[in-house]
Amino acid sequence: MIDFEMELKKFRPALGVEIGDNEMFDDDVKDITDLVAEMVEELKETDNR
To answer: 13-45 pLDDT, tens per residue?
Structure first.
């Protein structure tokens, strides 16, 4: 059987995983939806010319 108290004492967070919610959901970085929306806008502009 698993001794949860012992496992909690041994627990060490993985390196590089100490980012918080603010950094994870920062809007400064483009995600795939931003890139697709930008591409669609560019296509609309070239079709209108």
So the answer is: 776 666 666 666 666 667 888 889 999 999 998
Distance CA 49, CA 45 (A): 7
Q: Is residue 31 part of a domain?
A: yes
Specify the pTM.
0.40
CA distance 7 to 1: 12
Give the tokens for residue 8: 């909690």
Q: Per the structure, how many domains does the chain have? A: 1
**Could you say which DSSP state residue 25 is in?**
T
Q: How far apart are CA 33 and CA 36, in angstroms?
A: 5
